[in-house]
Specification:
Blueprint: H1 7-26, E1 36-38, E2 52-55, E3 61-68, H2 73-83, H3 97-104, H4 108-120, E4 124-127, E5 134-140, H5 141-148, E6 152-157, E7 160-165, E8 170-172, H6 173-176, E9 179-183, E10 193-194, E11 219-220, E12 233-234, H7 242-248, H8 251-256, E13 265-271, H9 277-287, E14 297-301, H10 312-332, E15 337-343, H11 350-359, E16 365-368, E17 370-373, H12 379-394, E18 398-402, H13 410-413, E19 419-420, E20 428-437, E21 443-448, E22 450-457, E23 460-462, E24 469-473, E25 477-483, E26 498-499, E27 502-507, E28 510-513, E29 520-527, E30 533-540, H14 543-561, H15 569-574, E31 581-582, E32 592-598, E33 604-610, E34 631-632, H16 634-640
Parallel strand pairs: 13-15, 13-16, 14-15, 16-18, 18-20, 20-28
Antiparallel strand pairs: 1-8, 2-6, 3-5, 3-9, 4-5, 6-7, 10-17, 11-12, 17-19, 20-21, 22-23, 22-24, 22-33, 25-27, 26-27, 29-30, 31-34, 32-33
Helix pairs in contact: 1-2, 1-12, 9-10, 10-14, 11-12, 14-16
Length: 642
């Protein structure tokens, strides 16, 4: 077993990394006028003349947030280190939200000064959270441009038109010492998307068959196998049930020990609210022999103006995400209380929804299954969410985040980049695997999730032979924002954690089943073209599945040890090589499945999906950039988190 230098050194190193990043991002340069100061890191790097599509109309209304920093950062860093040090009197003595605010929240006078200035510029102050971390205000584009000295342009990004300022904003110099970031002036957060791969609306309420109830139950030798000639090709798994996943990861052993999440709380953060979620979860629970969630499920909306986009497809994708997260955290911790925290201002308010979940301690575990490439996030947004994650850590809240479904992001987003907020050292990044379960519910094998596709045309396979064109896979790689946290030292190979000659934060930290070819069942109501909805059980995958699975397992550990575990990563990395994790090693490269789907004309199309081919990322012995430390054995994880 490797030595990790003790909990104090681990977390102190982590906090030094985060603090150094924040200081680097926050250093500003004075504006030309002595009376104003520049809030750096607000204009995103992608807002350039090369993709400028013009100006926003001046009458367009927008909301933004002015963020303040915590008081006494040095004391906060020391507290977070002491809370992880068994020799300290503060070890795992978490603060309540009120105690945290009393010690570290910005002064009321600073908040009042910001509010007064915003109101003097004609803005409406919309909300201030209880921790006083930011002031959210609203007004027109013209008001924003006059007040902050910016031009609000429209830029083409990922094929979409997204707003952003043409330069960093200016504020009165008297406020500069209080303000750490301004978010909402750019629209990048609107591109944050759920990290799941759902099917389209299933025909006649079912996935296109055939499919298998367990790995390789049904096979076909009708079609040639270009990857392993002569070997029959298995059909896609129909979707594993809660009992199968619980058995494969030994969660069922914890359930038999009466660890079911009773009196534990899980908060799930997303955008919008499914109008059918209660009915969907009740049906899922009834079909798969889980207790009814009932009154143990609640919903809240973060303060602000609740908005829904015109495109119903956007809300449907978030409804799918909500159903997946709620149903599968419930499957792992069937007696836990679950709160869904919806962003008010569509997807742009996700950072405020996270703060609402943390500041009101709506869960001892927070599960987050959305994100975007790190390179697209402004440094101001990074500073803002890092402050939220610091409060979560001080309060003993475990934050788990899906690592993304686009591998290294090159194919989907045009650049190699890890995701955010999963790259933060203060959260646990959950990657993806392909999981084979046998007919008795036993884990047969796992490999890294990375999928290539060939399409059958006139009995010939079309695509990049033999593994097909990459379509999706577990996210991972090296952060460009954060140095290597101390807990990863000696565990993550230097070759996988170096950028520009420096050791950096690498992700994911662990992995769980995410491959849609070996995905799970979920229940979701779909909107019908002629109105109304149809409720169906169908398959789903993505690292959005891994995050709620880990959230549920963490709730069981909290129940077992009668208290919150807090940030998970120091304990997870101390357990490297001890048998807590299944080391996900490379496959023989010849794994593939068959999958039928429908084309635009409703005709069945057969596809071959290869496994364990994830963009520039790859599985390897030990820590790797697809599966991190590996997939957890829930029974052993329980004791690792003690």
């Amino acid at each position: 077993m490797r030595s990790h230098g003790g909990s104090l050194g681990v977390l102190r190193g982590l906090l030094v990394v985060a603090a150094a990043c924040l200081l680097a991002l926050g250093s500003g340069s004075p504006a030309a006028a002595d009376t104003t100061a520049t809030v750096t890191g607000t204009q995103p790097d992608w807002a350039t003349p090369g993709n400028d599509e013009g100006d926003q109309p001046g009458a367009t209304r927008m909301a933004f947030s002015v963020w303040l920093g915590w008081r006494d950062q040095d004391s906060l860093a020391q507290l977070l280190a002491d809370q992880q040090n068994p020799a300290s009197r503060s070890y795992r003595h978490w603060l309540s939200p009120s105690d945290f605010r009393a010690r570290f929240a910005p002064d009321e006078g600073e908040v009042d000064a910001i509010e007064r200035w915003l109101q003097s510029q004609g803005f409406d102050v919309l909300s201030v959270p209880r921790n006083r971390l930011f002031v959210t205000a609203g007004g027109t584009v013209s008001q924003v441009e006059r007040a902050f000295g910016v031009n609000e342009g429209i830029y083409r990004l990922d094929g979409k038109l997204v707003a952003a300022p043409s330069n960093d904003p200016h504020i009165p110099r008297a406020l500069a010492g209080s303000v750490t970031a301004i978010t909402g002036l750019d629209g990048a957060m609107s591109l944050a998307r759920p990290r799941s791969d759902p099917p389209g609306p299933p025909p006649i309420g079912k996935s296109v068959g055939p499919c298998s109830r367990w790995w390789a139950e049904k096979q076909s030798d009708k079609h040639s196998n270009p990857i392993d000639p002569g070997r029959p090709l298995p059909w896609i798994v129909c979707g594993y049930t809660p009992a199968q996943i619980a058995s494969a990861y030994h969660v069922d052993l914890l359930h038999r020990m009466h660890l079911t999440g009773k009196h534990q709380r899980i908060a799930i953060v997303g955008a919008f609210r499914s109008p059918t979620i209660r009915e969907d979860v009740d049906t899922f629970s009834r079909h798969y022999h889980l207790p009814k969630l009932g009154h143990r499920y609640t919903e809240v909306v973060a303060p602000g103006t609740e908005r829904y986009p015109r495109d119903p497809g956007e809300t449907q994708s978030w409804y799918i995400e909500q159903a997946l997260d709620v149903e599968w955290s419930h499957a792992m911790a069937p007696d836990a209380d679950i709160t869904y925290v919806a962003a008010a201002n569509d997807a742009r308010g996700l950072d405020q929804a996270l703060n609402h979940a943390v500041d009101n301690r709506l869960g001892d575990v927070v599960s987050n299954s959305w994100g975007m490439p790190e390179r697209w996030v402004s440094s101001g947004e990074v500073r803002a969410l890092n402050a939220v994650f610091q409060q979560a850590a001080a309060q003993g809240i475990s934050v788990v985040v899906a690592s993304g479904d686009d591998g290294d992001n090159q194919a989907a987003w045009g650049h190699i980049s890890v995701g955010f907020p999963d790259s933060s050292p203060l959260v646990t990044s959950v990657g993806g695997t392909s999981l084979a379960i046998d007919r008795w519910g036993r884990r047969m094998w796992e490999t890294g999730w990375g999928t290539g596709e060939l399409r059958l045309k006139n009995e010939d396979w079309v695509g990049s032979m033999p593994f097909g064109d990459f379509i999706y896979g577990g996210g991972g790689g090296v952060s460009h924002l954060y140095d290597q946290p101390a807990y990863q030292a000696g565990v993550v190979p230097a070759g996988l954690s170096t950028w520009k000659g420096q050791l950096r934060r690498a992700e994911p930290d662990i992995a769980l089943d995410a491959d849609p070819q070996t995905g799970v069942i979920f229940t979701q109501s779909w909107a019908k073209p002629n109105g109304g909805t149809r409720q169906v059980d169908s398959w789903i995958g993505g690292t959005s599945l891994g995050a709620p699975l880990l959230a549920g397992m963490t709730a069981l550990a909290n129940q077992a040890w009668h208290g919150s575990r807090g940030p998970l990563n120091p304990g997870l990395y101390r357990s490297a090589g001890t048998g807590v994790f299944h080391d996900i090693v490379p496959s023989d490269g010849r794994l593939a499945v068959l999958r039928n789907g429908l084309n635009a004309n409703g005709k069945v199309v057969t596809r071959l999906r290869s496994l364990d081919h994830d963009s520039s990322l790859s599985t390897a012995r030990g820590w790797d950039d697809v599966t991190g430390l590996g997939s957890p054995d829930a029974f052993r994880l329980l004791f690792a988190l003690r």
